[in-house]
Amino acid sequence: MKIHPLLTDNQDIADICERFSTADFVAVDTEFMRENTYWPILCLIQISDGKEAAAIDPLAPDVNLQPLLDLFVENENVLKVFHAGGQDVEIIHNMTGKTPHPIFDTQIAAMALGPSEQIGYANLVDSWLGVTLDKGARFTDWARRPLNDRQIEYAIGDVTHLSAIFPTMLEKLIETGRGMWINAEMEKLADPDNYVNEPEDAWHRVKFQGRNPEALGRLKALAAWREKEAQSKDMPRGRIMRDETLADIAAHPPKDQFKLAQVRGLSPGWKNNDIGERLMNALAKARPLAKSELPERNSGRRTKFSKDNALVVDLLKLLLKIRSTEMNVAAKLLARSGELEQIVAGVREGLELLEGWRYEEFGRDALDLIEGRMSFTVKDGKLQMTHSPES
Question: Do residues 267 and 245 lie in contact, with contact meaning Cβ atoms separated by under 8 Å?
């Protein structure tokens, strides 16, 4: 494979993107920093089609990334391959308002080919290629220039290995007939709605007890205010105000700005500074949450069961473990714990485990167990599942 030096010249970037525009796939990775900012700082983009690979410097003076971005979000003929690509996709979405498509994530695909639920990149490379990665450059400050040869080699290695793993993984998925299992998961990863940070929706991420419309209205207003402050200052939202403090103010609003000095988590300066004034203005404009927006009762809480129902959930978890072990897939790919609790509680609509291939591979047996058409037996010291004749 041809490895290019760090690309900073716009013509070089345009040329390699032109060649990649006719490839079957490109493996993509990014290096970024976001510890001290709201928006992640893109520091490096690595890309390979399995024949050549390069790292592109987005911090180079007057760099033009448009040919690369067009390859990611406009070229539907080239598959974009990531590993645990959520944050990489988020960065591309921030820059373009679109997401890479079509897309393939090797971490998701690995769940259909083995028991690991969130296999790390180093473990993926080791298990599929027998290569142990050098982790010496993991904690590089990728925003600092110049980058040395070891750092660039480390970064490019992420896509050279990925471009070697992908064809083998795809062949295995086709061989096992499990490619269709992960199609929906890939489309979820590429859904642009997952990467839009609308301030008006920010309150959903804050833990809050109760369903009082007035308090929730204040929570919504404060969370939106904080999100806008963080975006405008390009600062992590927690640096503006922690979730716990925001929720406390929403539940127990101060009568005036001077009282902010008494709120745990805020400095005394909030009683007379500009940001404190803006917070009070946000509170003043808050309106009770509409009934249609109220969270469902017990939303976010575990479903309360009788002891018998809890035992049935445990039996389903045992069934899930048996089935995922037999199939050699990650249990989470078949069903999640919350779904098992819901199905025991009588829910039969809107559950992924009761749809499509998940129903065929696990959901049907789960229903049979709950509804008395299947039981566990022990034969020759081994646990077996027995279906009744009428099932």
Answer: no
- 3-state class (DSSP) for residue 131: coil
pLDDT tens, 162-192? 999 999 999 999 999 998 889 989 999 999 9
Amino acid at 251: A
The pTM of this model reads 0.87
Distance, C-alpha 183 to centroid of its chain: 16
282/379 Cα distance (integer angstroms): 66
Q: CA-to-CA distance for 98 and 192, rounded, in angstroms?
A: 6
What pLDDT score was predicted for residue 149? Answer: 92
User: What sections of the chain are H helices per DSSP?
Assistant: 10-20, 66-73, 86-96, 106-111, 121-129, 149-176, 179-189, 213-233, 237-240, 243-251, 274-285, 307-327, 331-334, 337-344, 356-358, 364-370
Kindly write down the DSSP assignment for every residue of 322-348, as one continuous string.
HHHHHHTS-HHHH--HHHHHHHHTT--
Say if residue 95 is exposed, middle or buried (CB neighbours under 10 Å; 0-12, 13-18, 19+): middle
Q: Would strands 79-82 and 103-105 be described as parallel, antiparallel, or unpaired?
A: parallel
More confident residue, 302 or 238: 238
Q: Residue for token digits 């040869």? A: 149
- Two structure tokens written together for 149: 């040869």
Q: Which amino acid is located at 351 in the chain? A: L
DSSP one-letter string for 44-57: EEEEE-SSEEEEE-
Copy the structure tokens of residue 206: 């804050």
Pairing status of strand 382-387 against strand 374-379: antiparallel
Q: What is the pLDDT of residue 140?
A: 86
> Which range has the worst mean pLDDT, 7-16, 135-144, 229-238, 299-308?
299-308
Closest residue by Cα to residue 231 from 197, 201, 193: 197
One-letter amino acid for residue 237 of the chain? R
- pLDDT (tens digit per residue) in 302-320: 555 677 788 899 999 999 9
- Assess whether pLDDT exceeds 90 at residue 158: yes
HEC per residue, 196-255: CCCHHHHHHHCCCCCCCHHHHHHHHHHHHHHHHHHHHHCCCHHHHCCHHHHHHHHHCCCC
The whole-number pLDDT of residue 301 equals: 47
